[in-house]
Each structure stands twice: as C-alpha cells, then as structure tokens.
Design a protein that fits this description.
Structural class: alpha/beta
Helix content: 40-55%
Number of strands: 8
Strand order of the largest sheet: 1-2-3-4-5-6-7-8
Order of helices and strands: EHHHEHHEHEHEHEHEHEHHHHH
Bound molecules: cobalt (II) ion
Length: 335
Amino acid sequence: MSKILITENVLRDAHQSLHATRMLTADMLPIAAKLNAVGFWSVESWGGATFDSCIRFLNEDPWERIRQLKKAIPNTPHQMLLRGQSILGYRHYADDVVEKCVERMAINGVDVFRVFDALNDPRNFMVPMRAVKKSGKHAQAAISYTVSPVHTIESYAKLAKSLADMGADSICIKDMASLLSPYTAYDLVKAIKKAVDLPVHVHSHSTTGMSVATLVKAVEAGAEMIDTSISSMSMGPSHSPTESLVEIFKGTEYDTGLDMNLLLEIAAYFRDVVRPKYEQFESSFSGADTRILKAAIPGGMLSNLESQLRQQKAFDKLDEVLKENARVCKDFGYP
Ligand code: CO
C-alpha cells in the first residue's frame, strides 16, 4: 500500500449537499491559493448541479467559473461530475452534443471526469467515456451504489469490468445516498479489485453517519482515493471531514502526507466567512439522519429537495416524502 489520495469536494458536492448548490465563485476564489497548495489528488470544482445552479439561481456563467478556478488552482487537477449521456441536465442528449460538451469542458479546465449513469446502464456511459478518452483527460467511471434485493456485490463487480473495458482510468464507488456500510465497502472494494486492475475511488456521503468508518474499511480493502470535505463543510448530507481522515491515517502505511496547518486555515475560512452567508439554504439534515437508510435520497439532492418543499409551502410533508420515496423505488423495481 501507498499513501491515500484525497479529492477535496468543498467547491462542488459539499455545498450542493449542504446549501442547495448556492456557493458563489466569489466565495471560492479567496481560498483558492491555499486549496492549490495542499496537494490534493484533485479538487472537485464543477459539474453535478453547479452548472444548473449558476444559470438558474446565481446569475453566473458556469464556463467562466471553471476558467477562473482553473487559473486560481493551477497545480491541482480539477474534477467534475458528469451525468453520462445527460451531461449536466435532466434528460439524455444527442451523441454529438455530449461529444462537443466534453471537448469544451476539457479545454476550459476539467482534468478528471467522473462519469456516472443513475441507472448504471453501460450504454449511457459509452459516448461520454469515449469523448473523455478522446480529450486525453482522466476518465473515471462511477458505479452508483444502492441497496435493494436486485443489487449485489457481484452485479457491481460485473459493471466495473464493463466500465474497465470501455477504457476507464479508475473506478469510483458513488455512495450518493450514504447507504454503504463499512463492512460492505470492504467486500465491495475487494470484489472490484479482483474484477479489474484499476485504482478505486470511494465517494460516500455522511447523511446516515457511517461514512468515516466506511472510508477507513474501503482503504483497508485497497481503495486508493477517497472524497472528503473540509471539516467546516462536512458531515450531514455532505462528506467525511478532510482533516479527520488525514489524522486517522497519519503515521500509518496510508498516511496522506497533507499539511494539517494548511487544512485548518482552509477550514477556518469556510467556517467563519462562507458558511454563515448561506444559512438560509442550510439543510436541516445536520448530524446523522437514519431515515435516509430507507428513503435513500442522495446527499446532493437533499438540500435542493428541502428548498423545493419550502418554496411549495410543503416542508411539513418532508417525512411523508421520505417514506414515499422508498415506496416509489420499490414500485419501479429498484432502478
Ligand atoms: Co455526491
């Protein structure tokens, strides 16, 4: 084993999960130089709901955001979340649109493309994966993890194999709804490692309270990369705290080698300057909410869901919505 590589997701998934994706580029740039100096494997800075949110809510040009962040964080690879054939939208797009978008994303600054499909259908990976490979950038294929009577470790390992056959440079286990328990993570990483000869990256939200233990067991099973969020933007529907994982692995064979003092300065910036500004969007799912073990709502959807319920004056229905989601999932045959 060698040192564990960290992807810091404070600029994308952390605020997508905690604050309905509302963080402005202007609040990211002042801390960019410090993020650049840490030595993260990558910094997740684009994709997911950020594109939509820039246009719909923030009056920002998302392309200008990635160019500015790339300039301000030049020495760390920039990572984005790409929704496969749906690119950054909510339906499938034509192949030529996918190809052109990936080409422009690569030119504008994206270095690592984490490609996923919500249905785990290999056909929806083919065009985007081919486009990423053509751009010469890192193609990380993500398996969306869930728990159901039809999802097994064998089925995930088989999917990993077909994604490897498409040319994936690494495989991500995307535990968006915080359902991956530590011991299952251990077995799953082992099974994927047996199926493919590729680095494994684990993305596990903290909503249900299991994520720190999950990451530790995944690393013990051989995962090379993990996603974390700087502590002041961690936990709840977000991710495990960066500094905590750095400290956990310190002095072991997995030591990340990252500078704790620098991380503490970054944590202070988000705690004191950024987070208070976005209080109105703050998710009510702080701490651990084990209703999500059944409801299986992704962390990155929770604060948006809450915000939408509030807009419809239906926030009091939240608990019923969570219960309904589990029922709908079953009615649709566990997609
Ligand atoms: Co996520």
